[in-house]
Design a protein that fits this description.
With about 350 residues, this protein is mainly beta. The protein is built from two helices and 26 strands.
Length: about 350
Amino acid sequence: MALVFIEGFDAYGTTLNVAPVGMGRKWGDGTVSSFMRVRTGRLTGYSVSLDPGNAVGFVVPATQTLILGFGFNSKTANLAETRVVEFRDGSTIGINLRRQTTGEWSIYLGTTHLATTSGEAVPYDTWCYVELRVKVDNSAGEYELRVNGSVVLSASSTDTQGGSNASTDTIRLVATSASGVLLYYDDLYLLDETGSTNNTFHGPVKVETIFPNGDSAVDCTPSTGSDNYALLDDNAVNDDTDYVTGVATDVDLYDYPSVDSNVIFGLMVNTVCRETDATPLDIVQLAKSGSTTGSSTAEAIGSTTYVMRKAIFEENPDTSSAWTNSGVNAAQFGFEIQ
């Protein structure tokens, strides 16, 4: 598997300029909602902004070479050099991307400047799509920065290792502490270069978020009414207001609205869940296509407060090939309790 993380920022509420609800459960930072805001999206839906002086990140398996793509908009003229994203080894900052007051892009290793673009400035209040590939190594390191699909900076056989390990295990979005700087992020993907699919730049992409709109086959018990899906389609999730409950071996599969994407690189199934007593339970994410159900690795819920468990499905389990528009539209997604 090469896709590691997908984020469209569309599932954290629909009210603009307020804190995103529940985002910290996916990003691993429980305080995220206190310093982020829901904003209008790059193409459709929503994006998020960071308050100045804050950052938000997620942990990934330690990997030597990663490609990060994301929509980016500096909504204000740059008042200071602005750190945009960091590749980290634990708490140590490795390669990081910055925007200059001119709108040009700079690559740093920690606090050491490596390179700055010339003639590649993106005007403020303009969405662009940024992709940064980093291979971590003390001497054979590499980086490549693309903006809107074009290479604007690159280097090889160089030092890109900031920590003690030749790998990245944390990605962080960062907002400079300069007063008045406002950065928007949207349509994010992260991949490594292993495997036969999703092992290179995807160019500007859109992340589409969909919520269940029907019950396909359900075992769990709804907290109210008779339709399980109707309790799981809230944007944002409302925890103990609407929910379904189940026990080990229960399976819920849901229908979803059609997507409009022509090329689909992969899907991420996200489930917000908690345990209600001392009995430990695992959850498995499911993707059913035709007569075949693909299952993620079982993951412990491990908490009586709400957490998010997620899994990537890069291929249609019924065809063992990349998802197509029609394949996604005919599929069902859900979970199994174990």
